[in-house]
């Protein structure tokens, strides 16, 4: 550690500026206008972080990116740094690395980096850094951003190369680091969006070499090979609450009967399509939750014409015996469903699918809710309702 080690960042900044002033008077260029953190806290902080957190424990690809992110954080209080989203907290974490046990180094470095594990929560730090680097608050308020951020996949490790891709909070931190050194932050702010990002921080297969810090990866922890129910239900329940499913467990039970599809799906009757619209729902639930629900209303269906393809697929999967005895085949199921009053999508009107509207007898919505409940039941008791009987019987 250099001779400045142990000084608080504020004291270090003041000392270096004082030392620099005499030289400034004798030169053609004054230091006036130079951010004092470039002379003191940020320069010192990045010296420590770049030296102590190297190799697989790098948290900044370059010193320039470390400086760019550093200047977005408050310096903080040297006496009350614990758990704070400040430079003081991050510096203390980085300074512990040389004497730390091997198993502790990764967490210390991640705490010193943009994630700030021991320096505030990851979601608080992500939402703060996005606002500072990109000039806008996501989801309308900082509290909404922090709440909805809980939907993001957390790999519980950080790699500035691998995490250039993948729909994780770690990928978003990598791109916010990149955004910090670019005027306006683009295109990296778009990559780091909370809702479905414009590029890179998604799970769509990408064969291009990653510029500015990354390359394509085959690691399924970074980018899964296909959509999965755990990701879908986590995002859907955070984004939509109980409007599409009565619980996360109910979502998980029904999900396994959906066609898997691809992460690139945006208008197919697949799990991949529903994941895409679940991410969109994080900041725009009124527009996208219905698309992401069991019927994929208005987006994730066949030719976007009705909900019946989704209904028949799920009915045949969840209740195969009842499906065979009631309809015999897909075409008969589609005709029966098509006669119901809410067969066509209505994502903004009174027949838009929600678990509340699904209490209405004689509707496709009622049948979808019955299928969701039946998927959880060992005896599939709600299958009778899912075919228009019981609680879903049309009113006289």
What does this structure look like?
With 396 residues, the protein is mainly alpha-helical. The protein folds into three domains: 1-120, no CATH class; 121-217, no CATH class; 229-392, no CATH class. The protein is 45% helix and 0% strand. It has 19 helices and no strands. It has helices spanning 9-25, 36-39, 41-52, 63-70, 87-95, 102-112, 122-134, 142-149, 169-179, 188-191, 229-240, 248-255, 271-281, 285-292, 308-318, 320-326, 330-338, 364-376, 383-386. It is elongated. The termini are far apart. 47% of the residues are buried. Mean pLDDT is 87; it is low at 1-5, 10-39 and 209-215.
List keywords for this structure.
single chain, 396 residues, mainly alpha, 3 domains, disordered N terminus
Set out the fold topology.
Elements: H1 9-25, H2 36-39, H3 41-52, H4 63-70, H5 87-95, H6 102-112, H7 122-134, H8 142-149, H9 169-179, H10 188-191, H11 229-240, H12 248-255, H13 271-281, H14 285-292, H15 308-318, H16 320-326, H17 330-338, H18 364-376, H19 383-386
Helix pairs in contact: 1-3, 3-4, 3-5, 4-9, 5-6, 7-8, 7-9, 11-12, 11-13, 12-18, 13-14, 15-16, 15-17, 15-18
């Amino acid at each position: 550690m250099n001779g400045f080690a142990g000084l608080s960042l504020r004291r270090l900044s003041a000392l270096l500026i004082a030392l620099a002033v005499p030289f400034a008077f004798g030169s053609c260029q004054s230091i006036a206008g130079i951010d004092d953190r470039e002379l003191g806290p940020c320069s010192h902080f990045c010296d420590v972080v770049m030296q102590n957190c190297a190799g697989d424990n790098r948290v900044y690809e370059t010193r320039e990116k470390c400086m760019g992110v550093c200047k977005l954080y408050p310096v903080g209080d040297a006496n009350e740094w614990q758990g704070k989203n400040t430079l003081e907290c991050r510096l203390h974490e980085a300074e512990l690395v040389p004497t730390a046990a091997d198993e502790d180094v990764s967490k210390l470095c991640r705490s010193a980096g943009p994630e700030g594990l021991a320096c505030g929560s990851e979601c608080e730090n992500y939402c703060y850094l996005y606002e500072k680097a990109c000039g806008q608050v996501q989801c309308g308020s900082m509290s909404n951003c922090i709440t909805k951020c809980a939907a993001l996949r957390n790999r519980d490790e950080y790699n500035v190369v691998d995490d250039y891709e993948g729909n994780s909070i770690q990928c978003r931190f990598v791109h916010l680091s990149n955004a910090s050194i670019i005027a306006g932050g683009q295109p990296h702010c778009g990559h780091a969006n909370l809702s479905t990002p414009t590029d890179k921080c998604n799970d769509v297969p990408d064969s291009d070499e990653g510029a500015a810090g990354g390359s394509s990866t085959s690691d399924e922890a970074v980018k899964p090979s296909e959509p999965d129910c755990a990701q879908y239900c986590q995002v859907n329940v955070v984004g939509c609450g109980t409007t599409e499913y009565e619980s996360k467990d109910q979502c998980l039970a029904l999900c396994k009967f959906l066609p898997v599809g691809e992460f690139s799906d945006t208008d197919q009757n697949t799990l991949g399509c529903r994941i895409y619209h679940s991410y969109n729902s994080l900041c725009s639930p009124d527009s996208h939750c219905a698309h992401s629900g069991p019927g994929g209303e208005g987006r994730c269906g066949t030719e976007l014409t009705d909900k019946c393809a989704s209904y028949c697929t799920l009915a045949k999967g969840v209740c195969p015996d009842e499906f065979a005895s009631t309809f015999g085949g897909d075409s008969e199921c589609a005709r029966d469903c098509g006669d119901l009053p809410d067969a066509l999508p209505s994502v903004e009107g009174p027949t838009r699918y929600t678990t509340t509207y699904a209490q209405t007898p004689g509707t496709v919505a009622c049948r979808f809710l019955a299928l969701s409940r039946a998927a959880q039941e060992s005896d599939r008791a709600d299958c009778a309702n899912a075919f228009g009987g019981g609680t879903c019987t049309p009113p006289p």
